[in-house]
Amino acid sequence: MSTALAMCAAIALDAWLGEPRGLHPLVLFGRMANAIEARLYGDRRIAGVLAWSLAVLPWVIVLGALQWLLPAWASWCVAVVVLYLAIGLRSLGEHAQPVARALAADQLDDARHAVGRMVSRDTAALNPGQVAAAATESVLENGNDAVFGALFWFALLGAPGALLYRLANTLDAMWGYRTPRYEHFGWAAARIDDVLNFVPARLTAFSYALCGHFTAAMRCWRSQAAQWDSPNAGPVMAAGAGALRVRLGGAAPYHGVWEARPELGEGDLPDAVAIDRALALVRRGVLLWLLLALLFSASMHAGGMHA
What we know:
Layout: H1 2-17, H2 25-40, H3 45-69, H4 72-86, H5 89-104, H6 108-115, H7 128-175, H8 182-185, H9 187-211, H10 214-224, H11 233-244, E1 247-249, E2 252-254, E3 257-259, E4 263-265, H12 272-306
Antiparallel strand pairs: 1-4, 2-3
Helix pairs in contact: 1-4, 1-12, 2-3, 2-7, 3-4, 3-7, 4-7, 5-6, 5-7, 5-12, 6-7, 7-9, 7-11, 7-12, 9-10, 9-11, 9-12, 10-11
């Protein structure tokens, strides 16, 4: 029961406080990772494996040892704080809602600027539908990366699992690119993130289906997910688009070049309302996970009491 209650407490803390207003620990981690990259970089996979291990594993080991040494109540409190820092549910809304408000007010330049804080593509040339699509895609994908993935690994391995996942996800965002610099050095960061996200991504996709238009979500997942470059983002975004009954994907500009991407979902083109609906879909999914965690814990506790 303590794990389920810790998940509820961390989500409540996130809703109350949001991300830390000062220097976020993940920002400090990113600076440390940059320093490690500067010292260990080499155009070889082994260099990337060593850098990843040095950046991530000591923190996970220290956290595990700390929790083992602390009294049970203190260990639980540490777990809640770690999970709170690993998730970003409120942050999703804080980034996406300004885009929706600007689009609803026909303030396209403001919407482009706001969505530029969420995505890596060029935003200056996006029309209103493309801005809404970019924001909706980001909400759906980050629902997995910033919320459900951390909850899954916390439920499985406790606070060390959530920390491992979040740090690995951060390094994937920093190093996991198929560019001349990171083709080999970033290989480990990208593959480890793929492995850690394999199950959570599919649970996230199924959660979107359960909390939205189920039949459309499953149909889009089956027919479209494999077309997407990322093996984990594909199911998440295809199922999410189907659950919302909107069309996502398609060509998008990166570094001045429009790149072709598969189309996802079905139905209408996204608008400001679609962004809000995507946020609501993620939130319903989180409530579903918390409810299931509490029910599972209660059943296990009841079984133990009966035995």
